Every structure is written in structure tokens, then in C-alpha cells.
Amino acid sequence: MQNHYLNNDRILVALDCIIFGFDRRGLKLLLIKRDFEPEKGKWSLMGGFLKREESLDEAADRILHQLTGLQNVYLEQLYGFGEVDRDPVERTVSIAYYALINIREHDRELLEQYGARWFSVEDLPDLIFDHNEMVQAAKSRLKYRASHEPVGFELLPEKFTMPELQILYEGIYETELDKRNFRRRILSMDVLKKMDEKQKKYSKKGAYFYKFNKDKYQAKINNGDSLVFKPIKL
């Protein structure tokens, strides 16, 4: 039995994290400059190697924390990437994960302590190896998730305005949305709680804050309600 294992090739397993964030201007991707060869000095996703005693999820959590300081964020396994020549040094299979975070809560520590940088998803630099392909796969998964589940709210602060929510969904779907149709579609789901407080930073009139009601959403799902979050395009 042992010979059967020993006679097979040993292959490295890497974990790469595609980290999406949101500020009021749009959807962002967190990148770092690679500090070792090959491709030293080029922009890269956050990544590292699987340890013998770890599960894939445990390794993804560890790597994300080591490289960004982030813990307890939305993290989901995406796909495996295993082209033979994807890493020029060693045969390596990479398992990609994507994370969703609220930039306002983590921006300073990420940029100051870990040397990371946010890029708009509409204007990304060339990335090492097959990381561009990973990002495209993650964007497609996020679009699908956002149309069927409230994952977009993972990117928002606890209190948010309707304009902020629309900017987020426009970033996810990479298209402009009709304001009235968007508001009507979102509010018809009856899972947002309108606050008495307004945000007046961006206009004199101000915009009311909302909160996502997770308990109400879960109750609707348990009741068999079908909630489709995908908004109508212009």
C-alpha cells in the first residue's frame, strides 16, 4: 500500500485569495506586490502553500490572516487551477478562494501594516501567473451569488444608504442600473430596515440609512420564499 503512494508524483498545493472590498466609489480588489522570484515586484493575489496538517479552509484562513490581518470574513472556495506550467518553478495546483470585506472597517490596517493596495475592478494591473483568470472566475461567481443570495451586504457597513447599495450592485454587475427600478426591486423583498437617521455627507437633503435584517431574510427563506436580488438593468 505504501509503495502505491510513494510511486506517484508529489505536487504542491497553493491557496490564493481574491479579496473584494467596497467603498462608496465602487467595487475594489486587494493586491500586493510579490516579494520573491519569480515575478518579484509584480502585482499578485494573496497566496501561500497548504501545510500537511491543514484542511483547505484552514489554510485559506491562515494565509488571509498572515498577509492581511483579516479574520472572520466571508470566505468561499472558488475553483482549482492546475495547468501544468502555471508556476514556472514547481508543479503547483492552486485552490482559489474569494473574500468579501467592508473596506471602511479594515482599510488603514491593510494599507499601512501589510503594504496592500486597493484597485478598482474596472482598472486592474496585469497579475502574475494565472491570477487574472482567477479574478475573472471570482467576479462571475460573485455576480451569481449576488443575484440569489444577499452576499453583497457582506461588503457594506452595518448602516448604508440606498445610493451606496446601488453603487455596489452596479460594481458587481458592471453595468448602470435604473434608480427607480433598483429601489423598487430591493425594497419589495422586505428585508431592509429603514432608519430614522440620515447621511448628509454627500448632499444637503441627505439619504436615509438602512440595515439588512438577517433574521427576517432567513425567516423568508425558511418559509420557502424565493428572493431574487438581481436588479433590472437600464
Overview features:
Arc Repressor Mutant, subunit A, 2 domains, three-stranded antiparallel sheet, 234 residues, 7 helices, alpha+beta, seven-stranded mixed sheet, Nucleoside Triphosphate Pyrophosphohydrolase
Explain the overall architecture:
- By secondary structure, this protein is of the alpha+beta class.
- It has two domains: 2-148, Nucleoside Triphosphate Pyrophosphohydrolase (Alpha-Beta Complex), CATH 3.90.79; 158-222, Arc Repressor Mutant, subunit A (Orthogonal Bundle), CATH 1.10.10.
- Helix content is 34%, strand content 28%.
- The protein is built from seven helices and ten strands.
- The chain has helices at residues 2-6, 56-68, 103-114, 131-148, 162-173, 179-188, 214-222; strands at 12-23, 26-33, 43-44, 46-49, 74-81, 92-102, 117-120, 160-161, 192-199, 207-212.
- Strands 1, 2, 3, 4, 5, 6 and 7 form a seven-stranded mixed beta sheet that branches. It has a three-stranded antiparallel beta sheet with strand order 8-10-9.
- Strand 1 (12-23) and strand 2 form a beta hairpin.
- The longest helix is centred in the middle third of the chain and has 18 residues, at 131-148.
- The chain is elongated, with a radius of gyration of 20 Å.
- The model has no long low-confidence stretch (mean pLDDT 88).
- Keywords: Hydrolase.
- It comes from Fodinibius salsisoli.
- Residues 12-142 form the Nudix hydrolase domain.
